[in-house]
Each structure stands twice: as structure tokens, then as C-alpha cells.
Amino acid sequence: MRAASENDRGFSLIEVIVAMVILGVLTTAALGLYITSIQSAATLQRREIAVTVASQAMESVAATPASSLYAGRSRAAVTAQWASNATASGLSQTVLNWDKSATLPAAVAVPLTRSVSFSGTDFSVTTLIGTCYQRVAGPGAGGDCGMVSSPATSFTSLERVIVVVTWTAGDSCAAGSCRYETTTLINSHPDQQWKSGA
Asked: Is residue 28 part of a domain?
């Protein structure tokens, strides 16, 4: 029988334990990075869905004739909707507007709020519509569309549409709802007299 030389020795118990500890630390760090990347991907996916949902809502508004934008929107419902979305961008420069017909139609042309569900997440879509005024003549023509106390002939009215999409899912929305907004102006006049730039 041959005697074992020093080169034939295996790993000692301490070397094996140190290797396992190093491997455990590296595995834990990699697992944490993997979980964070999965959560980030899910958050990004929800935001992309919110952008798509908002775009679809805006396309629906664009497909509605300008004369029907307010159809079925009662003053009480619009007032409550605006109160719950007071921080929406552009709302402070928009005049609250509603269907002023004597009898409201049974159906609302553009829903005030609706819910959609994608990939296990519920999204709430709120469509705010109001009036703002843009100067079309004189100094500052084509500037921002805002509120005017007594619009003269140098101003034209435009309809501002604000779509707000909210959702709650994951840790990124723990402090409240996640939110995405988009805004556009609609000219309900057939003569296209407003200017888009200064």
C-alpha cells in the first residue's frame, strides 16, 4: 500500500466551510438583485399599460363629435369628479362644464370614470372635460389656453380633455395610487381659428 503524499490531501473542513459561506453570500446578493429586477419590470409593465389605457381613452374622446363631448354629464357628477381630481394638471386653468340640456340622455357619450383590468391589475380611468380660452388675436395670440373672466372676440374657446389613470399594485403604490395623466385640446369650431404656437 502506497503512503499518501502531501499533494494527495483534499480540502480541509475549514476550507469547505469558507467556500460555502462565500457561495451563500454571493447567492443571496444575486437573489436580491433578481427579485428587485422582477419588481421593477412589473412596475414598468403596469406603467406601460396605464399609458396604453390613457391613449385608448383619448382616442375614444377624439372619435366623439365635439358637440357630444358633454352629453349625459350632469353638473353634480362633473363637480364631484373634478373635486376628487383637483390636482390634475391643467384643471386649475379649465372652466368646469357639463351637459346643460333640459333632459340628460340615458347614455353618457364619454364616460366620466371606468375601470379596466389587465394582467391582474385594476386601472381606473377618469376623463375630465372642460373649457379653456386661447387668445387668437392681438399680443400673446396662440399662447396658453386658460381661464378668462370675460372672453372677448380676441379669444376662442377650446375643450381641454384630461385623462387620469390610477392603479394600486405592488410596493411602488403603497403610499397611494400610482398615477398617469395625459392632456389634449379639442377645437369644436369648424373654422379652425386658433393657433397652436406663439
From this structure: yes
